[in-house]
Amino acid sequence: MKKLSAVQLKQQAAVMAAVTTLEQQAQSELTGMLQCWFSLEYEAFPGSLLVRLQFTDDAALESAQPNLLHWQKKLSGLLLKKGIVLKEMRRHLVMTTQGPDD
Q1: What mean pLDDT do residues 4-29 have?
Q2: Of the candidates 34, 8, 40, the residue with the CA atom closest to the CA atom of residue 95
Q3: What is the number of other CB atoms lying within 10 angstroms of the CB of residue 53?
Q4: Nearest 5°: CA angle at 99, between 28 and 79?
């Protein structure tokens, strides 16, 4: 694996801080929310950022799905505070039952 540059490390830290905050808020407000995780390609950042809210089962996922736009806006706001602008906030957050290893 290639070593990350100083800029990439700074981007990763900013995204990690925003995602951690989002995860804490989601766990307190959404029933059945397990964890929040993300993937990104540094060469295509921020367009390649994809954050996932992982739920325990399909029932919890379905009950949270109507609030998806709210959480997308919340993620966009948290990243904006870190200086990261998402052009299309709807593309960068999804809700799923799959984990990072699935």
Answers
A1: 94
A2: 34
A3: 25
A4: 55
